[in-house]
């Protein structure tokens, strides 16, 4: 027994060695965590949690992972997902105050509810099937009703209006999905330390969900290894963006509120997640106007920056990096311990004011018209103040132009008339050819597919406002198709406005340490903004009436059938008498039969010979009837089971 | 000539009416279709009127003491068609029903004037446009086979036999004559000709459709999107029929069952009506159109306009119709109340779907009573003819 146990242990040791060798020879899985804090001009604080998990390309995929969540890698393998992004959002990103032209907003400002897009690596014919299976898998994984995106009426296949250009891209969104802690828990389960240790320990549910904006995002992309026989690596990026309001004690209204991690989240960081390769906290301060002109190249000055007349940080940063218009303080949470937890705080000493960089055009969307028959959707693009400063101008033929892509999905019950598309530039109606560079429309089919519109506008730089309106008719649904609160109305998913010539990125002036958060911020990302979700009230039938309607309508049909037949077969007076005298001689039916036979044979009518013949005729007719009925029943059964 | 002047005057006034509705483009097509239909209706009516006069004279009906004047049913029908508020509404509203109605009337006109290719063309186009006029095949075959509307053949036989008894004494010749007329002379040749033309026109239409829809899925797709759409009642937007609410409310499990039952209701009545009214094919056509406008998937007031004007073709026969005032008030009330209820429900949101559906139910009831009473009045008219004929005979003998 003991020898058996010993040999077993030996076997285990050998096996673990082998595994270690297998992994040691290649790249290892990496996990890193980061938190970016940023005070916002409207006295709020943005906290952006960023977790990145990398699985290197290896042929042992799907069998064993050290850090990488198995569920995700299986998902990628099974449905051949090339790239995917899933976001759960509550609240609306305030583009005016929270910024519209930085990588944070362009990547993390998401539409309300659930948004999912995925690019598949399968043949074109299997893309829809893969999408359907993926929605079901994700719905189970994240405790959300993502499976509603399975039906073809709720997703679309954008060609170029949405960011990545691919014909294997599917996009869907559920504006009404309520996002809460049951969606966050499975999301946290994908992290190696969950919310027990490291930066994710800050995620105290009440404080996270108390925020003004809350968006949890999961982005995964596969990295081709390039080597034969080796699978592809997966990069899983999980971010949580919250906008919180620090509790203020100062009486001055123009004073920015001071905060610390413990006051924002009610928790502190006591140490890093031991499985993480790097675990940093960043603080981004914008609009430090007094210091922008100064030269902060020397280390000493940079280290003095954290304690000055305007504000004071509670901890000394490791490094300070200068960006074009902001400073980035880097903290390492390695030093914290149980006795001395990491509790970064920011205290303002003087009122300070700054503004965020805006997207070239600010977008909003609204409904027009009244009543439940028809209406119109309008998208309004307004020039922002920062428009002049933008460097992303595109000079074509000596003319300065801004390009804007608009991508919108219409559910089928919003029956859009695409010919009614009107574009007003600075309150003057323009013909399509003047401003519309490209347009792609796929009309909806009732109860089968949703409509989609992608268009590219080319506007002069000095434009003040652009209004786009399109008319629609409202559809009428079956009672089963209404949601439980039908009178609330139906949500139209957000439209996406993106500016293909404008890219947002933070350009750091120094070489950086290999931090995934900073490198993702450094990458150029498309400037995009989502519009509001629209609530369209639809006409409702009376939900309590099915039985009444069925019975009343059937009564009408009975009235029609009965009375018309009655009129047709009614005979009066002498006709009846005549028929009776005829009927005395022979039975009505028999007479008819004998007449027919006589006609066929060409002989005069003959009287029926005996009653025996009659009974045989009757029985044969009875048998015929039974056979007919049975045949009809069999046919019915056959066809109904066929469906 | 005078009639023509009146017609021209009506046309002009219609155009003047329409010129007030500025901004409605394309109404020339619909109003021209309406005017053309009215002219064809008038021609049909004149034929029917002549036939009525001839039959009455043959039966010795006019010679009798009843000083009945034959009403100019063609003019009345044309006027009813042109001045019917339903027609005007569907014309101004740019509905396609004027064009569908024109196709139907063209088919009837062709059959009445024995222009076989024209009748076939009208029938095929009408069926292509709205499927339901396919039922008109039976009345048109009767029209071409038996001729125009006439009292039952028995009456003629009786009259003729009476006359024969009076005139001839030879039994042989009497038998021969009787043999000639005991069964109605059915013109198989014309009917075959008609069927051939129907085949030709439908092939023509189908080939044209196939050619033009080649890129968009072909004929199969066309049938699915047109006839399939009509038969499966996918669109549940409110109309003056009852199906939209029924299928918005009915349980999905029973949907197919009710679809079959409700559509078969139209087909069920075809045969009994054809047997009972085979001597009056035009009237049969009117009844078929009325029934299909009640039981249509997506009915409109344009359909009602058509059958109401066809009804006016039979004013001579249907003078004794019961409940006519009641029906008139009913139609008037419904046509006033429906827009109100629709407005309350859809636009103001103060009403309820049931209000409007109640209206639709009422409208269906009135239409049913109208159809039933028309059939009953026509049958009673035939009975009255027979009775007067037998009285006449008794008097003579």
UniProtKB/TrEMBL annotation, chain A:
Any matching Pfam family: Gpi16
Extent of the signal sequence: 1-24
Membrane-crossing segments per the record: 547-568
GO cellular component, one term: GPI-anchor transamidase complex
Alphabetized UniProt keyword annotations: Membrane, Signal, Transmembrane, Transmembrane helix
Coiled-coil boundaries: none
InterPro entries: PIG-T
GO terms under biological process: attachment of GPI anchor to protein
Protein name in UniProt: GPI transamidase component Gpi16 subunit family protein
Organism: Arabidopsis thaliana
TrEMBL record, chain B:
One Pfam entry name: PIG-U
Membrane-related topology note: Multi-pass membrane protein
Gene Ontology, cellular component aspect: GPI-anchor transamidase complex
Protein name listed in UniProt: GPI transamidase subunit PIG-U
Keywords of this entry: Endoplasmic reticulum, GPI-anchor biosynthesis, Membrane, Transmembrane, Transmembrane helix
Pathway(s) of this molecule: Glycolipid biosynthesis; glycosylphosphatidylinositol-anchor biosynthesis
Record field: transmembrane: 131-148, 194-214, 226-247, 253-275, 282-298, 326-348, 360-379
Subcellular location: Endoplasmic reticulum membrane
Main location: endoplasmic reticulum
Domain of life: Eukaryota
InterPro entries (alphabetical): PIG-U
Protein family: Belongs to the PIGU family.
Gene Ontology biological process: attachment of GPI anchor to protein; GPI anchor biosynthetic process
